[in-house]
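Input set for joint prediction.
Command: fold jointly, output tokens.
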Amino acid sequence: MKTVAAAEGIEETTLCSRIADGSAVIMQRETTAIGIGRGLRTKINVNIGTSTGKINMNEELRKARIAEEFGADTISDLSMGGEINAIRDAILACTTLPITTVPVYQTVVEKGMRMMTADDILATMRMQARQGISSFVVHCVSPAMLAEFRKKKRILGVVSKGGSITSAFMLLNDCGNPFIEHFDEVLAICREHDIVLSLGNTARSGCINDPRDRAQVEELRQNAALGHLAHDAGVQVIIEGAGGHIRLDRISPYIRHYKRKANFPLFVAGPLPTDIAAGFDHIAGCVGASVASAAGADYLCYITPAEHLGLPSPEAVKEGLVAFRIAAHIGDTVKYKDGSDQQDRTVAHLRAELDREGQIRCALDPARARQLSDGEKECTMCGEFCAIRIMREF
Amino acid sequence: MKTVAAAEGIEETTLCSRIADGSAVIMQRETTAIGIGRGLRTKINVNIGTSTGKINMNEELRKARIAEEFGADTISDLSMGGEINAIRDAILACTTLPITTVPVYQTVVEKGMRMMTADDILATMRMQARQGISSFVVHCVSPAMLAEFRKKKRILGVVSKGGSITSAFMLLNDCGNPFIEHFDEVLAICREHDIVLSLGNTARSGCINDPRDRAQVEELRQNAALGHLAHDAGVQVIIEGAGGHIRLDRISPYIRHYKRKANFPLFVAGPLPTDIAAGFDHIAGCVGASVASAAGADYLCYITPAEHLGLPSPEAVKEGLVAFRIAAHIGDTVKYKDGSDQQDRTVAHLRAELDREGQIRCALDPARARQLSDGEKECTMCGEFCAIRIMREF
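tokens >
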């Protein structure tokens, strides 16, 4: 609590009261504590992990190190390929950042879609909790939501991996949602290991032409209700929503709607305000995430340039992370106005003083800034006709 | 007129009446005609050209070819180093896109800041017009604006190169603005060669902590008044404004204010909603430009990753251009709603059909998309646990 209050520059009592009312959470792991929510700097999560299509542990560890070096706040290990436990142990060993998992991923890989049971999922959660995980994502797809999806009114139906696995489990077994039906047990595991419960966003749109629908409204209603149950049971809660693909002018109203309906920290994946940016989705995502965080999103899940194309390389992870650090910062300059723009003020003064070396040193990626500066002592953009230099004489 | 109306999918009579009332212009060159303004797709300008600090004609020609290949609408040749006329001739020869210049650049290089006269500037304009230029940018800094700048209330004063050269000329010679004082002659040159007159944005802010000030208000008032004079004289006009560095929540109100005060097409540089993104200013610029075009900006001047660091490489030009194509498209999906999102709809259907090759083919940079796709036939992101594939079974 002290660590987070100091890092955020707020009073400990203020932070305390926000954690008490559920509007902020602290995700912690050994020596690290990250505050997420009301009045706190917008945070960024980086997804890493193997898939069944690509398994390279060393690359995943490089991604984890890049995430920490370039300023991620949390990491989600979404590994579904190879020795999942060994990979996660190695990731935990190479970073101090809190790690999130989606327990149904490992369960479905190890048990198979047709064979896994609700008990298997709970067993995975207990095992991952003992490994040292800081947060779980669970997808509380309800039968009402499933019925909406099956009407196939969307161009792209369910684009959430965890949501689709959970939906398939329910449809194959003709059963209710395993997390909702065993919610007390889920809460008990979270409480025992001080794990933050993140209520997933199965119903997010997969393209900008799939606007908000009844499934999304129902998911928000249900996640808010489950969030209150969890909070009352002493479990910290994050709600995921307003992510996916959303036309730019709809992002702020959606975010404000979520924040009105649920007091918990809001975790947003993207959102992407266009579908045409494959190869550059980190840039389109930065646009959506800037607007989302300015409107009140507390926690951003980054998007890499490889989104929609393949598992990201370590370089793509870096590009995505930097783009989302820019988004989080832009959001904070709007959310918190004066005080959040100290870095901007510092850079502006360095520019006014023509302190080129200072600008490079405080860049988000100093090596890249140096490379783009052509290795020249003077800026080659305007050469001797630099506006700042010219106007200095008068 | 026919070409533009067809390209934009609007009636020729509608386009005609917008050109007549000044809310749209056509920038043309031989076989190319680009419509900019009310009801037309948001356009993108790419700045290229040598500086006194870096002169490499072949690189500039590569940039011109990249601009055309990756979908720029216009190019500004801002060359200030080397054989400027020869470089411009070579650029004109290697692209069909309309070319804009800032005549005071070449004049100050050839004549020197202390020696150049208003007649020299007009002579440059006549010469460039004969070369085949489609648009001129002139900075109509007024004595009232100069007086505001000299109060030094801003962290960063004038950050416009053309504006600072023009201001220095006025201060050194203790004279009025050469473009305003010879406005009739400027208009005569434009009219004779069918050149679009772009009224520059000297007063734009250089950091987000320099908010709109009296110099900006005065510049808009004056550019709107000069725009009416030009329009009445049969010269097509664009107004530059609301560019530079602007906090995210201020962008839409600024743009709407400009559009209310001046009916002419609005050309915006950036804007950048943060100062901290050196090395990634194309991404921060994409955020600002998306919001600006959604709010009504008609024409965007791109920003490259090398902004604030050095003259961009051809690769940086490509990165900047693609980021601004994304911004223009995001803006259009908001400005024009249905109909402008056809590309998004196409991509969404390709995704629903798991048509990976189709998605790569219609990417903004297919080679990059292919590289990020790992050369794999199947997407390695989710491997066998693809949400779309899983849900197809139900």
